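S.,

As promised, the geranylgeranyl diphosphate run. Input:
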Amino acid sequence: MVMFKEELAEKAAAVDALLERYLPEEKGYAKTIFSAMRYSVMAGGKRIRPLLMMETFRYFQGENEKLVEPFMTAIEMIHTYSLIHDDLPAVDNDDYRRGRLTSHKVYGEAMAILAGDALQSYAYEVAAAAAADAAPEDMPRMAQAMKVLTHKPGIYGMVGGQVVDVELTGKPIPEDVLHFIFELKTADMIEAAMMIGAILAGESQETVAQIEKAGLDIGMAFQIQDDILDETGDEAVLGKPVHSDEKNVKTTWVTAYGMEKAVQDVREYSDEAVRILRETGESRHLSNDFLFALIEHMVGRKR
Ligand code: GRG
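Predicted complex:
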C-alpha cells in the first residue's frame, strides 16, 4: 500500500508537469486570463481523470504515450472549468476548492467565468492540434478520441446532468432523476477518460463499450463517495467546505438512501467496474496492478 501511495504521488506529479507544459504563457494584454487558468489548474487536484486515462491506455498495451498526453491535459482542463463554474456565486457559491480560495474570490466573478470558458476552449485547442498533427495511421483513433472528448462533457453528458441538478436544487428529486444526474454530471467524465485511453490504445468498439460501462460504475461510486464525504469528510483534508449540499438544500445519495446503503453502493458499483475491466483483458492476460489499486483507492478516498 505504501508503494501504491508513492507511485500515485509520482504519477500525479507527472500529470502536474504535463499540465505546466501545456498551460499558456502568462504574457500580453490578456495575461490575467492565463494567470486565472493556471491558478485553478495548478491548485493540486487529485488528477483522477488523466490518471485513469493513462492507466487504461497502459492496461490495453498502448504504445505511444505521446498520443495520450494532450488528451490527459484536455480532460483535466475541462474538469477544472466545470469546478470553477460550479463554485460561482450563482451556482454553489463556494469559497474554497482544492485547498485554495475559489477563482471568483481571487479574480472576481467575470474573470472566473472567463477562466472556465478559456479552459474549455483551450482544452479542445490542445487536443485538436494533437489530432491534426498525428501520423496518418494514428488519425482515425485521434478522431474517435476527439468525438468522445466533445460528447461526454457536453449537453448529453456533464452539462446536461448539471442542468437538471441546478433546476432541482432545493426540490425533491425522484430516484430515476438522481441516477440520471449522477450518470451525466460525474460519470460521463470518468467514462470519457477511460474510453479515450482504450481508443488511443487501439481497442475495438466492443471493448470501448465495455470500458464505458466500467467507467459509468466507477463514476457512480465516485459521486456517491463525494456525497458521503460532504457529510463525514474533513474540510482540511478535502480542501473544500463540507456540508455544501446541505447548505444548498441538495438531494444527495445519502439523503435519498441513507448512509449505510450509500457505503454499500460505492462498494457494489466499484466491484462491478473491476469485474468488467478484468473481463475485457482476461483472454489476453492483460494486467495493470496500479489501475486496479487506483480504483480501490478512489473508493476509499478521504478527499
Ligand atoms: C455554470 C451552472 C453552471 C455549471 C457549470 C458543468 C458544470 C459547471 C459542473 C459539472 C458538475 C460537477 C462540478 C460535478 C462534480 C463532480 C465531482 C465529484 C467533482 C470533484 O472531482 P474531484 O474529486 O476533484 O476529482 P479534484 O479537485 O480532485 O480534481
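The chain has a mean pLDDT of 95. The radius of gyration is 19 Å.

- D.
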